[in-house]
User: Fold these one by one.
Assistant:
Number 1:
Amino acid sequence: MKRFLHICLGVGLFGAFTVFVLPRYGRWLKEGDCFRIRKIEVDGNDLVSQKELLKLARIRKNDNIWSVDVKAAENRISTNPFVGRVSVFRRHPDGIQILIEEKKPIALLKRAGRFYALDRDLTLLPANPGKCYSLPILSCSAGDRLAFGKPVKDRTVQEGMAFLRFMLKDRPDLYPLISEISPHAEGLILYTARGGIPVKIGLGGYDWKIRYLEAILTEMETNPSLTNAEYIDLRYEGQVFVGFGV
């Protein structure tokens, strides 16, 4: 009998909790002033402004923290072509944190007078004004149709980017010394950032050509007699030719 009474009491208390407490708790979560968003932190962005990210996220201050659909916000932010990964977190009781991992452009693609950005995977990105214009320029026709967020499949673009990726991996200090790469069917031509000296690279053999390029550019920094060089030719294995004007 006592056990029966205990069971009845337990059921009654649970019923009262369900009827009276849970609804009030739910209203408190949805309407409680302590859960209104007062802080929105955005971290990891450089190419994309905080204003643009918040516009995509559709998260505003004074919204209720529990009304934010974090997955939907992540999906909307991911539509920006510069965004590689994004995570949105609730920071109880009144904060939202947005963590961004951007795609990193390593070159500018110049085509028909317009500029685009390219990351390591040849993904086409907008050339964000004021952010990307210190990058080496890849000048070519890129005849295939271009689409933001999609890889560029043009063979000459792929060849130029292969050289840049190799340089970044093997001789990263050379990277800022190159202002432009012009891919052609017969090979690559580079232009130095200082003086705009053309460097004939040709095709393949990038490992030794990059080492030789580093050596000759270092020598040009310290040897005044090389400052009036008109071109550098690295097309022939084991040899460096430097041309001078008459």
Number 2:
Amino acid sequence: MARGASIQQFQELATGIRTVGDIRRVYTYNAPLAMVVRGTADQIALATWLFNEIDQPAAARQSAESAIYKYPVPPPPSPAAPDPKDTVRVFYLTNSQSDQDFQSTVSKVRSALDVKTIFAYNSARALAARGTGEQIAHAERLLQQLNPTVQAGK
């Protein structure tokens, strides 16, 4: 995407990295389509993975194998604490015919999972989600029902 992307698409990708990675300091330079990310080593690793995951030719996305990014977070302080939102996954909704259809599907997933860390990248029909392993598995099942040709990112 960044290669040959419009400025709007590039900015959208930066917003996705900022949102899903929970990284406040993501800076973009539009003329060269350059991005600077400032954060912890773990945040930089996630930003790099997410950028590379989405910045692929369409043919590569169509045949992507399912994979999950595990973000290293400390274990919960007690067994009663909620599971950390340490799992990130990118899904490609190749069957979405319009931006409106795609956004409708994203809204359904967002409300069903009750997770705010979901980002929709319209031009690639990519949905990046961050949550617990259980939430991401639920998202995959839901997307398979809503969009049978969904591909999970590698």
Number 3:
Amino acid sequence: MRYVIIRDDDTNALTPVDCLERLYRPFLDRGLPVNLAVIPDVATGTTMPDGKPEGFLLHKNGHGDCSLPIGSNAKLTNYLKSNSGYHVVQHGYRHDYLEFERISSSDAADRLDRGTRLLQDAGFSRPDTFVAPYDKLSRANMLEIAKRFRILSTGWFELGRIPYSWWPQYLMKKSLSRPHWRVGNTVLLSHPGCLLSYTRSYTGMLDTIIQNLNQSQVTVLVTHWWEYFRDHHPDEKFIATLHETASYLANRRDVKVVPFSELTSGNLPLN
């Protein structure tokens, strides 16, 4: 059996319910769990290095607050809680640019705890999974995350960034060519890039996904809800590709789509 974890990043207090419903109803109706990496207190002024606003702020509409907690959008939180196929995981705190790479470990500890409280205050269960904004983490902040979460999902791991005490496990993982590994009680997951992205060719996108899941028993499939609605217009071809992916995953008998939380049981392979 092969396992797929669907990870959609950047849901926040400004995310319209209609966007998530349009994208993921075919998954929910097929019983395919969707892990939403939720920003607990989104920074409304976050920009990329070129000065352009982050894509997940496309519905800001001149909102003046410097940050918005997820619980401020009752329509969104009620929608997520009423659909059991959604699984909320923690995505940074405010999602400032390179948030958990540049801040100190003491600041990171504070942001991690505050973010968890905001998710719980909004009515969600305490998250067991942390998703790193921009797939970037400092060595010290990895340790703070491992103290609090059972699962860390990021793009990749490299020797120069991981805590020194993790080096033996990391070198073992590398020697065995495994994408995922474990340190103590924390599962460390990598992913093969954002295979569902508007920056890739839609032609053959599903074939690339199939190729990657055939190479690993556990594949984290990453996408971003806002990429399907750039400039406030739905990208119909891209949405159709996402829904084609849902159909494929549902119909393939040797593939099971699971939430992150299923990995904490220890029953799934890490290779």
